[in-house]
Design a protein that fits this description.
Layout: H1 2-11, E1 17-27, E2 35-46, E3 49-54, H2 57-67, E4 71-74, E5 79-83, E6 85-91, H3 106-119, H4 124-140, E7 143-149, H5 154-167, E8 170-177, H6 190-206, E9 218-224, H7 232-244, E10 249-254, H8 258-267, H9 273-279, E11 287-291, H10 297-306, E12 309-312, H11 314-319, H12 331-336, E13 340-343, H13 355-368, H14 377-391, E14 409-413, H15 433-444, E15 450-455, E16 458-459
Parallel strand pairs: 1-4, 6-7, 7-8, 8-9, 9-10, 10-11, 11-12, 12-13
Antiparallel strand pairs: 1-2, 2-3, 5-14, 14-15, 15-16
Helix pairs in contact: 4-5, 5-6, 6-7, 13-14
The structure holds zinc ion (ZN).
GO molecular function: guanine deaminase activity; zinc ion binding
Function: Catalyzes the hydrolytic deamination of guanine, producing xanthine and ammonia.
Organism: Pelagomonas calceolata
Length: about 450
């Protein structure tokens, strides 16, 4: 712990009030998919929060004179700043087998790979090693905020909280609850699930003395794994916990894959995931449901009415598709109905830890679904930043560079990646070198391009 603090302190060389000057790109809140490009900008940060933003030379002069930052970081002309990326769906224990296990339908996959792997986290030392590697990997990819599932184990869930706090990764974290259909001994009683959830919520609150509400780095969450593994009693109990306090988030899965939708129908004849979650008080404005591929129009309306978010996970959506019933998440239709949509890697149903990969898969998936309008790189990046913040109910805190938000950001070096920028080849239709560099980064970039990562104004990588 001491060594880690020293390492982070060494990274955080900026004084409490500093500024970054150069090009920046971020999501504009006016409409989904709208990206703002600033060729010469300045962002002033004080105690982790953005206190001023300038977007041209005159504004920069005025802002510098007014705020007098103690240090100004000048970006190179081949660099730009972007908001930290938000991953709305990650299963921390599954990171161990990400990149494998892509050969089974969802319900079989869970029994064959997932539950045995998650069961191992009863060993806290094993969980700590695994979670530490995952958090490092996510920060390396430029992910600064993540919605995390742990396992049914309270000690390992609390260890995940500690690791996020130590390494400075913003997160929504919870203990997974499942009191039936776990198989292989990976389940708990209803009472254990509810008591364990309360214990983890308290742990998360107490682990951050002096912070409350949205100022917390880690937010507490209840997680009914999904309808098939939760009895109505468990869903009702978790709904009660979510209602008791306004600082409790909810995560789960809804209408993910054909075999899962069918299983829900056998357990709750004639009912859909949305109705079941809503009737138990689990569809709230602090709730994010993963996948939602097979939601009907009326269910999307319910999501919009309740302010619930969706984690669009295009890679695992495709892997668990059971074609020919496959279709993509209705990205534009959901936005048009007012649903909050973020992107998720869904480690390890999706094998890549980078949300940029999820952006690319969202674009490809939309091309394959004839019923859907194309999702382009701007739509996807918007969803991977401000969209994700909105889906998690954290958009007053992060998601883009607006005054009052936290400085969660990534510094991109366009020349450091596994591709060539070729500025001389900018197409006449492309408005600027910055847009050219941004499109290349979203489509071709990886952790090599990510020169530094900030969360709450502190360097974490
Ligand atoms: Zn999942």
């Amino acid at each position: 712990m001491a060594a880690l603090e020293e390492k982070l302190a060494a990274l955080s060389t900026h004084p409490p009030k500093f500024a970054v000057r150069g090009r920046f790109v971020h999501a504009n809140a006016r409409r989904a998919g709208l990206i703002e490009f600033v060729e010469d900008g300045l962002i002033v940060v004080e105690d982790g929060a953005i206190i001023a933003v300038a977007k041209d030379a005159d504004q920069i002069k005025a802002v510098l004179a007014e705020h007098r930052p103690q240090d100004v970081v000048e970006l190179a002309e081949t660099e730009f700043l972007a908001p930290g990326m938000v991953d709305c769906h990650v299963h921390a224990p599954q990171y161990a087998y990400s990149g494998t296990a892509t050969d089974k339908p969802l319900m079989e996959w869970l029994q064959h790979y997932t539950f045995p792997a998650e069961k191992r986290c009863v060993d806290v030392d094993y969980a700590k090693t695994l979670y530490s590697a995952l958090v490092d990997r996510l920060l390396m990819q430029g992910t600064t905020c993540v919605a995390l599932y742990a396992t049914i184990h309270v000690p390992a869930t609390n260890a995940l909280v500690d690791i996020c706090l130590e390494k400075g990764l913003r997160a929504v974290v919870g203990k997974v609850c499942m009191d039936r259909h776990g198989g292989d001994g990976y389940e708990e009683t209803t009472a254990e699930a509810l008591a364990g959830t309360r214990a983890c919520l308290d742990y998360i609150r107490k682990a951050q003395p002096g912070a409350s509400g949205l100022s917390r780095l880690v937010q507490p969450c209840v997680i009914p794994r999904f309808i098939p593994t939760c009895t109505p009693e468990l869903l009702a109990g978790l709904g009660d916990i979510a209602r008791e306090s306004d600082d409790v988030w909810v995560q789960s899965h809804a209408s993910e894959a054909p075999d899962q939708v069918k299983f829900v129908d056998t357990l709750h004849p004639g009912k859909r995931c949305t109705e079941i979650f809503e009737s138990h008080g689990l569809l709230t404005d602090k709730c994010v449901m993963a996948h939602c591929v097979y939601l009907e129009d009326g269910e999307l309306d319910t999501f919009a009415r309740k302010g619930a978010g969706v984690a669009c996970c295009p890679l695992s959506n495709a892997i668990f598709s059971l074609s020919p019933g496959w279709h993509a998440f209705p990205f534009h239709k959901a936005h048009a109905k007012g649903v909050r949509v973020g992107m998720g890697t869904d480690i390890a149903g999706g094998y890549a830890a980078s949300i940029l990969v999820a952006c690319r898969h969202a674009a490809v998936a939309s091309k394959h679904d004839m019923g859907e309008k194309d999702v382009d790189y701007k739509d996807a990046f918007w969803a991977a930043t401000l969209g994700g913040a909105r889906a998690l109910g954290l958009d007053t805190v992060l998601g883009n560079f607006e005054v009052g938000k936290q400085f969660d950001a990534v510094r991109i070096n366009c020349e450091a990646g596994n591709y060539d920028t070729f500025p001389s080849a900018i197409h006449p239709c492309c408005p600027s070198r910055l847009e050219h560099d941004f499109e290349k980064f979203v489509n071709l970039g990886d952790d090599r391009n990510i020169a530094s990562v900030y969360v709450q104004g502190k360097r974490r990588r």
